Amino acid sequence: MEIVKIVMPTPYDVGDVNAFLIKGDALSIVDVGPKTKEAYEALEFGIKRAGYRFNDIEQVILTHHHPDHAGWVDAFPNAEILGHEYIDHWMKKTEEFLNYREEFYKMYLIKQAVPEGYIQKILRIRRDMELYGSTPLTKYIKDGDEVPGHPGLMVYYTPGHAQSHFIFHHQRTKEVIGGDILLEKIASNPLIEPPVDLSFDRPKSLVQYQESLQFLTTLEISKLYTGHGNEIVNVKELVDMRLEKDSQRTNQVYEILSEPKTVYEVTKELYPAVYESQLGLTLSKTQGYLDVLVKEERIRFELVGGHEIYSRI
Ligand SMILES: [Zn+2]
């Protein structure tokens, strides 16, 4: 598989993001960067250096809906846009969906016992969707599909980091374009997101993510192309490292639960230095460790006055 990597800057803490031009029967690009002027210029430069123009790209294929990956879908006038159907909600941004999403987050922030002032702040940040694209998908792909125009390139659904997350595995070359499933330098955060069926059942993002990592280790992989940073060849080793780190954190949360606590209380103890400045992210992480402990039947929770109170079993 002919793969050309294009690196773009992002305004996010994660730093640069990668896109991949792939030439098969079709000319496609996997991921397209955030909708900033700087990312557009880097994208244009990379496509030009490979000998093409935006007009030549026949397919935009998205690993997931996050803005650092799906912003510039709007820059490809002749391309089909492929991805998980969940992405369409973020592209279309209907009033109905935006209201649902706000209700979803509000409900869980209350359950987590987050103070009202912080809830409003988190909701305000979530409302900012400036760097998202707005071109609806033209084709939905799903787990087990072969990517159109790329014989042997299989689609696998790997939720956790995002509810729309796919990886693409080439059956012959064993190369994988992995989005943010596994990154070389940093852990990939399983964020709390509304479920794909737009119900009010919160997906257990970290539980899903760990299952996706386990699945990744069952694939034969020659090289994993990542959403941020360098390619990875020692996939199994790195997955073990990430799972080990998670397991240490999970045990730390168990220790913190020497007496019953809310998610917000655990978050403050687990991340004393950064919980205030990165509340959305740290709440997601704490919730993830609690979900794992519930699944392992080491803790349980009960609803008291609208808040989930977690305690050891
Ligand atoms: Zn990313």
From TrEMBL:
In terms of InterPro entries, this protein maps to: Metallo-B-lactamas, RibonucZ/Hydroxyglut_hydro, Sec-metab_biosynth-thioest
SUPFAM superfamilies the record matches: Metallo-hydrolase/oxidoreductase (SSF56281)
Domain of life the protein comes from: Bacteria
Family matches, as SMART domains: Lactamase_B
Ranges for the Metallo-beta-lactamase domain?
A: 16-228
Pfam families the record matches = Lactamase_B (PF00753)
- Give the matching PANTHER family: ENDORIBONUCLEASE LACTB2, METALLO-BETA-LACTAMASE SUPERFAMILY POTEIN
Q: What is this protein called?
A: MBL fold metallo-hydrolase
Source species of the chain:
Ureibacillus suwonensis
**Taxonomic lineage:** Bacteria, Bacillati, Bacillota, Bacilli, Bacillales
